């Protein structure tokens, strides 16, 4: 886990920015409290401990290898079960990051990534072992590319009335909690989909070979 300081940033993108899509706006100021987030995406090795303890069938790996590659074929529901187990085992309260926390962490910047035409030996073919590329200034690896990452939030078509304090946005009356947000791009996306403001949705029970997660923890809990 890496501790990130409290801070404010402009979340989302503005019309006229390269690649802007309506779902990324309006850009708005968000202030987040200090929190910790995992240095790497959760790996097969880490997930295997949970699967063994809970007698859950391990997800498939497409014959790419397991070990320290990011776990794939995990749903939002699976990720929530993992953080609940991890919290119970450790005595600390782990969770999925909010969408705002995720973007704050990603905006630390990243020079290299695993994606189509990004220049690595894994580009467009498979995941890379976590930590294969330099960390961003926050000390986090693979915030861009490798696998998309689940966040805790429900889906909203845009940021109208979004919270400004970085909390998880779960207002089911105005959003769609039958869809959950994932972020960051993956090994099979082009660089324009690795932008820190890019966001997509999928049903919480869905899995894919390009979708994983990392965990967060509120500091002081």
What does this structure look like?
This protein has a single domain (2-218), classed as paralog of FGE (formylglycine-generating enzyme). The two termini are 14 Å apart. The protein is globular and about 45 Å long. The chain is of the alpha+beta class and 221 residues long. It has a four-stranded antiparallel β-sheet. It has helices at 44-54, 76-90, 99-106, and strands spanning 2-4, 7-11, 28-32, 35-37, 94-95, 148-155, 176-183, 199-202, 211-212, 216-218.
Gist of the model:
This protein is of the alpha+beta class and 221 residues long. It has helices at 44-54, 76-90, 99-106, and strands at 2-4, 7-11, 28-32, 35-37, 94-95, 148-155, 176-183, 199-202, 211-212, 216-218.
Tally of helical segments = 3
SSE pattern: EEEEHHEHEEEEE
Mean pLDDT, all residues: 95
Query: Considering DSSP H and I runs of 4 or more, what fraction of the residues is helical?
Result: 10-25%
Global structural class: alpha+beta
Principal-axes shape call: globular
Distance between the termini: 14 Å
Secondary structure elements and their pairing?
Elements: E1 2-4, E2 7-11, E3 28-32, E4 35-37, H1 44-54, H2 76-90, E5 94-95, H3 99-106, E6 148-155, E7 176-183, E8 199-202, E9 211-212, E10 216-218
Parallel strand pairs: 6-9
Antiparallel strand pairs: 1-4, 2-3, 4-10, 5-10, 6-7, 7-8
